[in-house]
Amino acid sequence: MKPLLLSLAIAAAVSGCATTTSPTGRTQYVGAVSQQQLNQLGAQAFAEQKQKLPQSNDARQTAYVRCVVSDLVAALPAQWRQTGWETALFVDNDPNAFALPGGKVGVYTGIFKVARNQDQLAAVVAHEIGHVVSRHHDERITRQSGASGALQIVGALLGSRYGSGAANAAVQGGSILAQTGFLLPGSRAQESEADVVGQQLMAKAGFDPRAAVNLWQNMIAAGGSRPPQWLSTHPDPQSRIGELRARADGLVPAYEQARAAGRQPHCG
């Protein structure tokens, strides 16, 4: 029965794909898994990361990060605000962060080296939330929904329902993080889109969108001769900064309107 189950699941994953439009108007192919299944994978990937890395015991920093996440989530459309968002601050020197389907946000303590105020931290987190609301994880999995990619998905789903034995029988080796690419950098199109969506989100939440420029300047400076990993999926970091600066000018009115409406973050 297992080969039949796998065949049916692979067929279902491929046939379930659909065409949709991203927040910036880009055509996307999504739907290899349901949103519920996607959220389950996000929760499992988040649990794996908690097993790999210790969480910070610094109550002040943890509250700071949660405050920024909370203020950003409050500015999301209703369908995304309803997600039970969860935040974790991991002890790791890498200046990085991530967000996963199902509302899981992870921030590494190394980010404080480059995100030097609440607006710059909001730029980081909003970029990552931008990946979630733009359905980039769904898009990546759908791209991988040929035989190999679908087998990984099936293995994860079998494991959550029937235990590790079934998952290992379906797929040999590799974790959810590695096989689905949940924590890997997205394509250049996805990264650029997350910049756009994230900068819009931070402005709506009352964070200064111009801080995104300062953040990436800090990231480049911290990387020295080798650009940080976050910049590796973009053809030219300086061009990216130019795009962020140009968008920031146009988003200042939205930022000022949010502040006038009472959205004035006081996270740290």
From TrEMBL:
Q: Which intervals hold domain Peptidase M48? A: 60-247
The cofactors required by this protein are: Zn(2+)
Which domain of life does this protein belong to?
A: Bacteria
Pfam families per the record? Peptidase_M48
The cofactor remark states: Binds 1 zinc ion per subunit.
Ordered alphabetically, the record's keywords are: Hydrolase, Metal-binding, Metalloprotease, Protease, Signal, Zinc
Segment forming the signal sequence: 1-18
Q: Which Gene3D superfamilies match?
A: Metalloproteases ('zincins'), catalytic domain
The entry's family comment says:
Belongs to the peptidase M48 family.
Q: What is this protein called?
A: M48 family metallopeptidase
